[in-house]
Design a protein that fits this description.
The chain is built from five helices and three strands, in the order ααααββαβ. It has about 120 residues and is of the alpha+beta class. The protein folds into two domains: about 30 residues, no CATH class; about 70 residues, no CATH class. It has a three-stranded antiparallel beta sheet with strand order 1-2-3.
Length: about 120
């Protein structure tokens, strides 16, 4: 009798097949459920710490335009606030988000604010 051995699949081929199936599933879910619904599973539900860090860093570096004029979209689980860092730091309801007032930057123009509830 002749000794026959079966040829196995290399591990790299199996890994590539698994990655391909995952990508295919994500594409199918994205096109059937909608990309906005899929984004909720991947993206964090809030960005409070990121916006607070950006505003506090702009203050420390003396970036007048970024702190006074550039709108930031602060997102929590149920609210979306679009304001500048200056407006976020001056507002009473956003003090809980950790955005501090900046004494080194004086904003001449205060832009309009917008708040939406999800």
């Amino acid at each position: 009798m002749e000794n026959k051995k079966a040829q196995g699949l290399p591990v790299s081929t199996i890994v590539l097949l698994v990655i391909g199936v995952v990508i295919l599933v994500v594409l199918i879910l994205g096109f059937t459920l909608g990309w906005n619904n899929l984004k909720g599973w991947v993206a964090p539900s809030n960005n409070v710490e990121t916006i607070a860090d950006q505003c506090n860093l702009a203050c420390q570096l003396g970036q007048d335009y970024t702190f006074c004029s550039e709108n930031k979209t602060l997102t929590t689980e149920d609210t979306e606030i679009v304001r500048t860092c200056y407006n976020l730091s001056a507002s009473n309801d956003t003090q809980v988000y950790g955005i501090e007032k900046c004494s080194s930057i004086k904003c001449a123009v205060v832009t309009t604010t917008e708040t939406t509830t999800k």
